[in-house]
From TrEMBL:
Gene source species: Corallococcus sicarius
Gene Ontology, cellular component aspect: cytoplasm
Gene3D superfamilies on file: Catalase core domain
Molecular function terms from GO: catalase activity; heme binding; metal ion binding
Annotated family: Belongs to the catalase family.
Protein name as annotated: Catalase
Compositionally biased spans, kind Polar residues: 1-11
Cofactor: heme
Amino acid sequence: MSQSKRPTLTTEAGAPVSDNQHSQTVGPGGPVLLQDHHLLEKLARFNRERIPERVVHAVGSGAYGTFEVTSRDVSRYTRMKLFSAVGKKTEVFLRFSTVAGSKGAPDTARDPRGFGVRFYTEDGNWDLVGNNTPVFFLRDGIKFPDFIHSQKYDPYTNCQEPDNVWDFFSYSPEATHQFTWLFGDRGIPASLRHMDGFGSHTFQWVNAQGERFWVKFHFKTDQGIRTLTTPEAEALGGKDPQHHQRDLYKAIERGEFPSWTLKVQVMPEADAANYRFNPFDLTKVWPYKDFPLMEVGKLTLDRNPENFFAEVEQAALDPANFVPGIGPSPDRMLQARLFAYGDAHRYRLGINSTQLPVNSPRGVKGGARNYGRDGAMRFDGNGGRGPNYEPNSFGGPAQTDEAPGVGYAVNGLTGTYVHGKHAEDDDFVQAGALYRLMTEPQKQRLVENISGSLAQVSRDDIIARAIAHFRAADEEYGSRIATSVQQLRRAR
């Protein structure tokens, strides 16, 4: 159907939507605006579509451990106390998860893995909520509900439909890089212990002198990378849908504690404006030759939760949980997540879920101090006789008057904008480069994995659009997929 004949997309109130692809920002490179009603409405509705499990990342595992600064004092880049001295230790909780499956789905599915780390710091909880991939399918959070709908069960068949998955992808060329990751060998880790983790987004560091830097976080597995082929994963998942959960639990129980080395890439604040591509684009990586990895410390998991529901199912990690020395960047996906995660937790677990032991700031002496009161499941003294307002003259907690130091300059008119163009912004260059880095057997498995799914699509136009993206990344890449899809369809 042509665009001109299609019905007009509207808000819940029936108002026409002028742009469903881009959030409102301050200029092409600025932060997302709270006034973007369409964005907030989409995210708020999306968070309330499923009860009681998580909308995404429902299939999860978790464990406790310790992070220790081992090899580099990064205080010249950030004033986070967590990194203030070599040898400093901080308690952590790490939740792993698949993205699309509902509870009970096999945890060996081909899917990105959530890699969410909570650091119980002395300044409060810092939640670094990323994935086992350094990139993602999208660069703007306004498209996230639509993307997940394309991956979830179809409203008519109640099954995941390849038509929906590939139709959305065919209109979202920015996903080509992540699709190449997902359908490659690393798309199915052999275990949660044998995969890397990433903060994925670009974040802001601020040091004691007020200087700002952009930073990316990489957790490199000390166990080495191991993966499963599609047949191996299907066999394991069929026999034991909780294979990865069981492997993690058993490894920790027998004292074989998994660990990851944290490394960072750091970009001076001024370099971002003229970098060859948008450094806040979640569909891209920063090449190591431009910004080398610097080792920071080691994260080790050494304790299983005593009760899965209390400590893993009720864990509510939130990327908006920052501490002094770190803050957000103009990454539009990150900006959307700063709202969406906390909103999802408040809906799913309730307004007082931050008081649950797994979510409370256990690194802070005396715990959280604020004027939150009442609400469902308030299970402490509810503030007792103390005032529930601020400012007050009764000795209640007061603001620090210390500048957080995480601002950055913005300019421009409010509105919806395509990302500002950098010299080498492109949806396909990094996907093609990743393909060309692969060995021939890795390329063959990648092509087989993609074509096996794409060949199930019923419409030729969807297949053609999808293949065009892979051809744009690398002509050989796309041609091999096209040939394989044709062969599979003829065989059926």
